Amino acid sequence: DCILFPAGSRILPYSFSTKSIAVVNDVVSVLLKEKKDFIDRFFLLHGLKKVSKIIATSHFIKKDLIKLKIKADKISVIYNGIDHNHFYHHSELDTTEDTVLIKPFAIKKPYIIYATRISKPEKMHIELVNAFADYKKRTGSPHRLVLAGDGWFISILQKAVSKNPYVSDIFLTGYFPHEHLPELYSCADACIFPSTTEGVGLPIIEAMATGIPVACAKAGALQEFGGNCVHYFNPRDPEDFSKAIEAILTDEKLRNKLIESGYYWTKRFSWEKTLQKTADVLLK
């Protein structure tokens, strides 16, 4: 009766003979800039304009699609969910040990965490490393910075880290199993998420659900997913970036507010809700 394309911004047929729905998780205008081949760009836009309906996973993505001349009335916004049986505060890990053991990793506490693919400059990893160094220099904090993820940009990031005066306090895990992220989050003192091109903000929801405060860029779709439950900053402003790290780690009133409000906020993001709303679109 219909076909669902869950990677609708990555691959679609040229023409459709039956009702088809494309799920778009990407900021398509960014994808178009990244594609060097004119034919690839043409097919991507052509497919999105011809498909019967589109499910955008944020209002930010929907607005981007409209700017690309895709009809607004065929776009529904449905947020992705998170697994609350997986992402919750793992209090059993809160011990007096100064090292977190998540095979094959041994991560020394205290630390702040940024978990995402290291795939492009707009993820702002290098800016984070620099802001972290400034924070360490100003405060003498014992915190470490854990960067969990992999991607083609990692070699460039490694060079930047090697030149950082606090290189011994910066840990790049490389690929990190998604099933162990709740443990990594739960043992962190905070999540810092400076990416400026996110069309979906699930990583900050996952972090909040595990009971840690989050500071993130005031950019992309992150405000949709963070609401009033995260601390926002400008990652392109080195001073604002560094002070955001300090605030999220040292302001106990702010930390407690974000932890409590974040716990309740994340309940609105569930796969059950996503499923029901998706079914509604399929059956229309």
Characterise the protein shown here.
The chain has 284 residues and is of the alpha/beta class. Helices cover 39% and strands 18% of the residues. The protein has 11 helices and 12 strands. A 6-stranded parallel beta sheet has the order 9-8-7-10-11-12, sandwiched between helices. Strands 1-2-3-4 form a 4-stranded parallel beta sheet. A two-stranded antiparallel sheet has the order 5-6. A hairpin with a 2-residue loop joins strand 5 and strand 6 (105-108). Helix 4 packs across helix 9. The longest helix is centred in the middle third of the chain and has 15 residues, at 125-139. The protein is globular, with a radius of gyration of 20 Å. The chain starts with a strand and ends with a helix. The mean pLDDT is 94.
Give the tags.
four-stranded parallel beta sheet, alpha/beta, 284 residues, six-stranded parallel beta sheet, single chain, 11 helices
Summarize the model shown.
With 284 residues, the protein is α/β, with parallel strands linked by helices. It has 11 helices and 12 strands.
